[in-house]
Amino acid sequence: MMAIRTEPFVLNMGPVHPSTHGVYRMRLTLDGEVVVDLEPVIGYLHRGIEKLAEERTYTGVIPLTDRLDYISSMSNNLAYVLAVEKLAGIKVPERAEYLRVIIAELQRISNHLVAVGSFFNDCGAYFTPFLHMYREREKIIDLFEMVSGQRLTYNYMRIGGVSQDIPEEFLPAMDRLLEQMPRSIDELDRFLKENEILLARSKGVGILTKEKAINCSVTGPVLRASGVEWDLRKMDPYSIYDRFEFDIPTGSAGDCYDRYRVRIEEMRQSLRIIKQAVKQLPSGPVVADVPHLIRPPVGEAYAHIEAPKGELAFYLVSDNSIAPYRCHIRPTSLLNLAALRDMVIGWKIADLIIIFGSIDICLGEVDR
Amino acid sequence: MVIINLGLNNPGYLQTLPSDWPGGFWWHWLLFAVIIIAVVLVMVMAFIYMARRQIGRMQSRVGPNRTGPFGILQPIADVLKVLLKEGIMPTNADKVVYWLAPVVALVPVFVIFAVMPFTNGGMLADLNVGILYIVAISSISTIGMFMAGWGSNNKYSLISAMRVIAAVVSYEIPVLLSIAGVLLLAGSLSMNDIVLAQDIPFILLQPLGFLIFFIAGLAEISRSPFDLLEADSEIVAGFHIEYSGIKFALFYLVEYGEAFILSCLITTIFLGGWRGPVLPEWLWFIAKAVIVWFVMVWLWATLPRVRIDQMMALSWKFLLPLALINLIITAIQVLALPENSLWVMIPVNFAITAVLILLWSKLFKLGWGRVEV
Description:
The complex is a heterodimer of chains A (368) and B (373). Chain A is of the alpha+beta class and 368 residues long. Chain A has one domain (48-367): Cytochrome-c3 Hydrogenase, chain B, CATH 1.10.645. Helices cover 47% and strands 13% of the residues of chain A. Chain A has a three-stranded antiparallel beta sheet with strand order 1-2-3, with no helix packed on it. In chain A, strands 6-7-8 form a three-stranded antiparallel beta sheet. In chain A, strands 4-5 form a two-stranded antiparallel sheet. In chain A, β2 and β3 (34-41) form a beta hairpin. In chain A, α3 (73-88) runs antiparallel to α4 (94-123). The termini of chain A are far apart. The longest helix of chain B has 34 residues, at 25-58. Chain B has one domain. The radius of gyration of chain B is 21 Å and the shape is globular. Chain B has twelve helices and no strands. In chain B, α9 (245-270) crosses α10. The interface between A and B is large, with 39 and 39 residues.
């Protein structure tokens, strides 16, 4: 039989595509349906946040950090203010520390809800898991609205604390959430975990080995799904994370299914932390006595946190002026994306989409 | 012009209609052509409305509720919107193929209803090869979709076009084999005779055949979880990505028209068609079709999508052997069982179905393996 002559072709997936989670572009070389090569093209959402930060006061940079990973603005705020506090040597009041932990963990749950929801969307479930996740996320956003007045770009953390104390209706609402959220997560999990098509689609697909993950400096749930027990909240406890009890969920195979499972488990662990934090929440001021225009001493500081998507860090250099001399961001999403090419080669287009979805990136952070 | 008299002026099936039914062959033809077009268009709009409301409920939101009472005019608003859109054609499209594709896809949808019995004998033509006719005609839509995918000169739609062909080639066979079991029971290919033969609905006599037909039918008309050819998260909209305006509307009509066809086919072949107590026959028919559509939307709202190789494996490794076994078992039963004792098949066949599905799902795993480049 005469063999049919075929040749690979190039497909530009993105920047306008429903499941590239923003404006990511993949220049794919395809052999039929199979991915032969992938060349990432980024920069469509570049706003020069690092450069803009050099023109603003230290406090004025906080709203910019909201626009990095806009799915989890609170975590970005936290990472930045930690860096400034390290730089200027500011002591944060107890109550503010607790509020920060509560808010950051809520943000983690909300981020993972979006991540898991859009992962299912990428698998082809017609928005149903996605919208159920969003229904749960809505409750968290309501809480954020109570404390900050915003629903997406919160701008809540301040250097030396948080912008304002929680209103009195916050804690009752928090209790309701803590009572109801575990049940919702269990319910969603029960519906989705054992779905035969999901198992067929995601088990063994897009495997990222331990070594590869470490070599690519992948962090966060993607790294933990590959079986590396690495969580900055435990390894290098910042803020007051050393006071709480929680586990680090890890996967074993490092496939898409494990990444999804790790996220679900992390939501449960976050709820555990929030429960402890709410119980221990002290009273007192929520922001340290910090001048409006701070001039940190000449020097540099690097602060990193375990953001929902992985390790997020800010590196600040001060020249004793009111604005940072240099503000470098270690973007989680960009570095996690580095492993994408190795994970997708040899898989089909449909797998490429779910592997990409399981990494959970946010283009605001990739392009900055 | 010589008109050859084929004896069409008074065909047998016209006698099954009421005596005051308007006269001769051509009147009957015209009237039913109008009825079919009206019914298909109205039902497509009803299906769109139902799907949107039902998916809304399943996604814990309301769904369309602003246009008219309960948003019932939403499909009309949708149609108006889509008709007013500008028709844009890609520069390098194959113009003839691009223009022809929606028509080629749409015509079979209407033509199929010629043999669909809405009431006892209430159909355009009671062909004695009705079911064969449907299977044959329904494949033509696929050509229209392939033409669209090819003619658009777009890589996404080309991938989709290739998926269409792959899906149809592999799912035509289980569809036909599962129908064959029914034909053995009914002893006729005529759609009306199949309904008349269903003193016991064939879903009870042929549970395995029903499941295979339903799954393979979903794949054939590319409904979830087999909506690979318009997989919006992968290849955006598939074959109709470059279509806009009325040409897109036609593809939309094809999509829902095919869903209506599948509902009607399942109704006719497995659920006893127009048969039912008290209510008028056409209402029974529509009600059953609506129930089938409900199940289809339910699957649509809940299941993720399978991958193309898994879809092929499901057809060739799972559905095809089961359909063959089902055919053989049915043949033996029809031969062995005496007349009027078909009810014996109900418990036997349900047991066989359960055993076979359990057995096969042990043997068969939806391809977890890596694809070789």
